[in-house]
Amino acid sequence: MTHTRILVTGGAGFIGSHYVRTLLGPSGPPDVSVTVLDKMTYAASSSSLDPVRGSDRFALAIADICDPVETGRLVAEHDQVVHFAAESHVDRSISDSAEFVRTNVLGTHVLVDAAHRHGIETFVHVSTDEVYGSISTGSTAETTPLSPNSPYAASKAASDLIALSYHRTHGTDVRVTRCSNNYGHHQFPEKLIPLFVTNLLDGKNVPLYGDGLNIRDWLHIDDHVRGIELVRTGGRPGEVYNIGGGTELTNRELTHLLLEACGASHDRIEYVTDRKGHDLRYSVDWSKSHAELGYTPRKNFVEGLAETVAWYRDNRDWWESLRERAALPAEENVVGAPAC
Ligand code: NAD
Ligand code: DAU
Q1: Catalytic residue among 64, 113, 130, 217
Q2: pLDDT confidence of residue 338
Q3: Whole-angstrom distance, CA of residue 65 vs CA of residue 296
């Protein structure tokens, strides 16, 4: 049996760690080993990798994808790359975008260039629906022109184009995935769902931006990870694959579901100043992933949300210390109220 050595960048973050736990878990392929390359920024969680730490098919390399020497050395020792590492939080890119350009654009360049030079078999670049920009109706296909708005989205769009340019120019087997908003356990408590749930569990209010009518499509982390594996194992070089969740909700609708799940009342919602340049709606058409790879989101949203809320309720140890790290809008976002 051929053994595949996979370098997973950003594997200590929310989606990357889930991917690694799945690959090395009981239902993962037996013929792969994984090295996580992660800088361990504020968004990383070392304990998210605890379940795989004892595996002889797992290794952790603490490094920066912008470092060409260390990144080149690690890439050279692997057959494939699955690239999650990024600055991922839109609000932070509005406050200060320098690190977004450095990691997302320059870091991706360092990585894909090393992949080309060392003859990597397959390079999966994990991207986002935000690169298509905001749409009020319909859904964006892989052929829709890119129209990113936030500095985060622009840095991701740039990284997609750099990665794809290596396929067109050098023939590197680059595959790009673009997914919608992920949710599930082990998500850093700065994104809407974990921020609101942990606020409610701590007796605080929840800060809803603007009128709360912006729409996101929610994708369970298990579905996303399955979609990425389908692309890694069955996708075509140079192709882009959208991965959607199939549950579109306004932020207000989602917040009401979260309040219900936490047994909290509606007066816990605090309408706050809108995000600058706040995109109204994203929606990806994932019919290509379905037709070519058999991808379909399977997780029922109500069930997935209830499991997620229960996980945060039962795993305070995991998120309490991380919340302290989430320095950005802590003061503005946090307002007192009775516990739920
Ligand atoms: P995350 O913020 O939870 O994790 C990012 C990880 O990357 C962290 O472990 C961090 O330490 C690491 N990292 C950051 N800079 C690095 C660098 N210079 N070198 C090495 N490692 C570095 O992010 P996430 O939510 O897990 O997102 C993973 C990927 O998926 C990102 O590329 C993001 O753009 C994309 N994405 C996320 C979502 C979502 O809903 N979370 C949706 C669409 C796409
Ligand atoms: O669409 C995919 C993207 O989803 C990913 O590429 C990003 O990495 C990921 O962070 C996420 O971006 P969003 O900006 O959509 O996610 P966030 O959880 O920050 O916000 C979701 C919605 O909720 C958005 O409309 C803004 C709103 N919001 C967010 C926060 C943090 C609030 O109303 N209040 C908040 O406190």
Answers
A1: 130
A2: 32
A3: 32
